[in-house]
Design a protein that fits this description.
With 428 residues, the chain is of the alpha/beta class. It contains 14 helices and 12 strands. Bound molecules: glutamic acid. Glutamic acid binds next to strand 3 and helix 12.
C-alpha cells in the first residue's frame, strides 16, 4: 500500500465538493449536505459465553432524511471507525437518490469481529445494539439493513428486540429479513445482480457483447458472489476472484484462465466468505497473493470488497487491457486515482450507482411488508433490473451530454435531488 492513510469521510466530502462546485451549489445547502445531520455513538455491553462482559463501541449515523427515512446497513467490522460510518451514511443518501427511491441515508457499525463471537454472543450483541438506539430507529425514522459481516439472522434478532421493546409488529423497521419473516425474495442476490445490470447496460451502450469480456473480482462475500454469478450467467468469464482467508489472516487470489466456476467456489467457502484454499488447489485453481486480482489481464475489474483498494500505489499494476472499472464495493477507489483512470481512458461505473441494487430491493421489501403481500422472485428481479437500468441511463446520458466523468454525473443527479428536497422543505 502507499502508506497514505485514506480517511473515507474526507474522501466522501472531497467527491461531494467536486460535484457541488460543478453544480454551483449555494453555500447553505453545501454546508448541510457535506456532513451528517445526526450521529449516535454508544457502547453495547454484552454478556459473553464465559460469564465475562465485553463492551463494544457502536455507531448509528443519519446523514440526511429529506427524501425519506434514513436508510442503510449495519456493519460488524474490527476496524470500524466513526469516519467510515459517516462516509458510508453519506454515500447511502446519494445511492437512494440516484435510483430515485424515497429514502435518505444512514449507516451503522459495531467495532467487533464476528468470527470471534459465538452465535449466542452475536444475538446478544444485536439485541444490545437495538436496546441502546431503538428510539432513533423505526419504519418512518431510520431503517437498518445487512452490510459487511451482518446477515438476515442478525436483522431478525434486531427486529425482534425492537418489537419486544415497543410492543407491536413493525416489519418495515428493518430490511434484509429472512424470507417468510417479512423478507423479500431476491434480496440476498440484489446488490450483486444490480452491479451486473449496470455493467450490462453500459456494455450494451458501447456495443460490447458481455460474452466477449473477462473480469477479475476482489472479494467473495455476498455482493461479489452474486455479481460473479450474474456475470457468468450472462456469458462473461471470471478469470480471478480474490478473497480473505480467515485462518491465515491474509487474502488470496484464486485464478483460472478458462474461467472460475462460481458454484464450485461458493460450495467451498465458509459463511464469512473465505474460500478453502486446499480444496481450490485440488479443483485446479492457481493460488496467488491477494493483491494480484488487480494485475489480471482482463477487460473489467470489479472491486467488491472494502473501501480504498484502488490507490495510486497499486494503479500501475492495472493491465493495459482493462477498459472498465465497475465499483461494486462502497468507496473502493481513492479520489487521487480518478485522474489516472481518466488518463488511461478507463470507463468508471461509480459505486453508489452500481451497488444501489441492495437498497432498491430493501425498498421493495418495505413496500411488500407494508402491503403484507409478497411478489415472486421474477417480479422482484424484473423491477430491480428496470430501476438499475433507468438510473444508469440517466447517469450515462448526463455524462455524455456534458462530457463528465461518470462519478461526477452520478453525484450531480443525486445531489440535485437531495438539494431539491431540502429546499422544498424550507431547510435552506
Ligand atoms: N448495505 C447495503 C448498502 O450499502 C444495503 C443498504 C440497505 O438495504 O439499506 O447499500
Amino acid at each position: 500500500m502507499s502508506g497514505i492513510n485514506y480517511n473515507p469521510f474526507e474522501i466522501a466530502q472531497e467527491q461531494f465538493d467536486k460535484a457541488a462546485s460543478i453544480l454551483e451549489l449555494d453555500s447553505g445547502t453545501r454546508e448541510l449536505l457535506r456532513q451528517p445531520m445526526r450521529e449516535f455513538h454508544f457502547t453495547v455491553p454484552v454478556k459473553m459465553d464465559d460469564g465475562s462482559t465485553k463492551v463494544f463501541k457502536a455507531f448509528r449515523i443519519q446523514h440526511n432524511d429529506a427524501r425519506g427515512p434514513a436508510k442503510g446497513g449495519i456493519r460488524f467490522h474490527p476496524h470500524e471507525t466513526a469516519d467510515t460510518v459517516r462516509a458510508l451514511s453519506m454515500w447511502m443518501t446519494w445511492k437512494c437518490a440516484v435510483v430515485d427511491i424515497p429514502l435518505g441515508g444512514g449507516k451503522g457499525g459495531v467495532i467487533c469481529d464476528p468470527h470471534n463471537l459465538s452465535a449466542a454472543e452475536q444475538e446478544r450483541l444485536c439485541r444490545g445494539y437495538i436496546r441502546q438506539i431503538y428510539k432513533q430507529l423505526g419504519p418512518n425514522l431510520d431503517v437498518p439493513a445487512p452490510d459487511v459481516m451482518t446477515n438476515s439472522q442478525h436483522m431478525l434478532w434486531m427486529l425482534d428486540e425492537y418489537e419486544t421493546i415497543t410492543g407491536g409488529r413493525y416489519p418495515g423497521m428493518i430490511t434484509g429479513k429472512p424470507v417468510g419473516m417479512g423478507g423479500s425474495l431476491g434480496r440476498t442476490e440484489a446488490t450483486g445482480y444490480g452491479v451486473i445490470y449496470v455493467l450490462k447496460a453500459f456494455l450494451d451502450q458501447i456495443n460490447q457483447p458481455i460474452d466477449s469480456t473477462t473480469a477479475s473480482i476482489q472479494g467473495f462475500g455476498n455482493v461479489a458472489e452474486y455479481a460473479a454469478r450474474k456475470y457468468t450467467e450472462l456469458g462473461g468469464r471470471v478469470i480471478a476472484v480474490s478473497c480473505w482467508n480467515q485462518s491465515d489472516a491474509r487474502a488470496y487470489t484464486f485464478r483460472k484462465e478458462t474461467g472460475c466456476d462460481i458454484d464450485q467456489l461458493a460450495a467451498i467457502k465458509d459463511s464469512f466468505g473465505s474460500i478453502d484454499k486446499e480444496k481450490a488447489l485440488e479443483l485446479g485453481y492457481e493460488l496467488l497473493p491477494g493483491d494480484d486480482w488487480i494485475k489480471q489481464d482482463v477487460d473489467i475489474l470489479i472491486p467488491a470488497a472494502l473501501e480504498n483498494q484502488i490507490t495510486p500505489a497499486v494503479f500501475p499494476n492495472i493491465s493495459s487491457r482493462v477498459s472498465i472499472i465497475c465499483e461494486a464495493a462502497n468507496g473502493p477507489t481513492t479520489p487521487d486515482c480518478d485522474s489516472l483512470i481518466l488518463q488511461k481512458g478507463i470507463a468508471l461505473l461509480p459505486d453508489f450507482l452500481c451497488n444501489a441494487g441492495g437498497v432498491t430491493c430493501s425498498y421493495f421489501e418495505q413496500v411488500q411488508s407494508n402491503m403484507n403481500y409478497f411478489w415472486d422472485k421474477d417480479e422482484v428481479h424484473q423491477k430491480l433490473e428496470r430501476s438499475m437500468k433507468k438510473a444508469f441511463r440517466a447517469v450515462y446520458e448526463l455524462a455524455e451530454e456534458k462530457n463528465l466523468y461518470m462519478r461526477n454525473a452520478a453525484y450531480i443527479i443525486a445531489i440535485n435531488r437531495v438539494a431539491h428536497a431540502v429546499r422544498l422543505r424550507g431547510w435552506v
